[in-house]
Amino acid sequence: MSPHKKIEYAIFDMDGLMIDSERVYTDVTNDILAPYGAEMTWEIKSGLMGKPERAAAAHLLSFFPNIPLTIDDYLSQRNAAQDTHWPHVQLLPGVPRLVAHLAAHNVPLAIATGSTRRNFALKTAHLQHVFGHFGANVVCGGDEGVGRSKPFPDVFLAAARLLGRAVGSGDVDGEEGGDGVGEAEREERGRGLVFEDAIPGVVAGKRAGMSVVWVPDENLLGVGSSQLTEKPDQVLRSLEAFVPEEWGLPPFDDVPVSQQSGKEE
Questions:
Q1: At CB < 8 A and 24+ separation, what contacts does 139-147 make?
Q2: Could you give the count of Cα atoms lying within 13 Å of 186 in the half-sphere of its Cβ?
Q3: What pTM did the predictor assign?
């Protein structure tokens, strides 16, 4: 038997999970702060991850009240610098193999990201051998009708609805409308698997009633675990370590039979 709940569809975060964008965010931000003798630590960064850009900027600048930068000033500098990096950002380990495998086995796939639609296009245009598998099943920050950002479950529920899943709306914990989530909707949510690297995304996935695989940066493990108000179902150092059959999915096609659930060749 699979050690985890059998799943039928998967929803991916993007930044820091599929692409190495967190390195860009860190380098660009520290370049902006450097003239003021300031630096963004991982303790600060852990509170930014998964937030919409203005909320994240406000959180960052709150640590440096003596720096004469408004939110708009900071975002203007940050966005201009980041735009030069996005066409060259690289995929993280394990992503091409996993996405191609799930797509080949007709597992419905979607993306739920806090990135704006514009930035999503900049980050993925050169990576269509992977992102092309998702088609139009993409929910971006600021999309009309999506609702609240992570850690609320809205983005993952919107992504599931794009896949034709009758998941309804609201938090399964009974907060923010969760009392209206029917049993059939709970069961449908439970068939979904979320892949996330950020703490707000983990919380959002669990509040959506889905299983969550957390793939955090090793720096986040050291400073951010105490911020988790919901427990992920699995923690991996890389998507390379994901084992599909643990979730009731077909094993990777390039894995020898002898390594598939202990079967003999």
A1: 139/110, 139/111, 139/112, 139/113, 140/113, 140/114, 140/115, 140/116, 141/52, 141/53, 141/113, 141/114, 141/115, 141/116, 142/52, 142/116, 142/117, 143/117
A2: 10
A3: 0.89
List the structure tokens of 229.
Answer: 């108000």
Q: For residue range 71-125, what is the model confidence (pLDDT) as tens digits? A: 999 999 999 999 999 999 999 999 999 999 999 999 999 999 999 999 999 999 9
3-state secondary structure of 193: strand
CB atoms closer than 10 angstroms to residue 37: 9
d(CA 139, CA 162): 9
* Helix, strand and coil in the chain, % to nearest 5: 45, 10, 45
Whole-angstrom distance, CA of residue 21 vs CA of residue 57: 16
The structural domains of the chain, ordered by start, are 9-20+89-247 (3.40.50.1000), 21-87 (1.10.150.240)
| Measured CA angle at 205 (ends 144, 136), to 5 deg | 45
DSSP symbols for 136-175 = T-EE-TT-TT--SPTTSTHHHHHHHHHTT----SS-TTST
- d(CA 219, CA 152) in angstroms, rounded, equals 24
d(CA 192, CA 165): 9
Mean pLDDT of 233-242: 96
- Classify residue 242 as left (phi > 0), alpha (psi -120 to 50) or beta: beta
Check if the beta carbon of residue 81 is closer than 8 Å to that of residue 33.
Answer: no
DSSP 110: E
Catalytic residues: 13, 15
Distance (Å, whole) CA 98 – CA 253: 11
- Report the Cα–Cα distance between both ends of the chain, in Å, rounded: 20
Q: Are 151 and 51 in contact (CB under 8 A)?
A: no
CA distance 17 to 115: 13
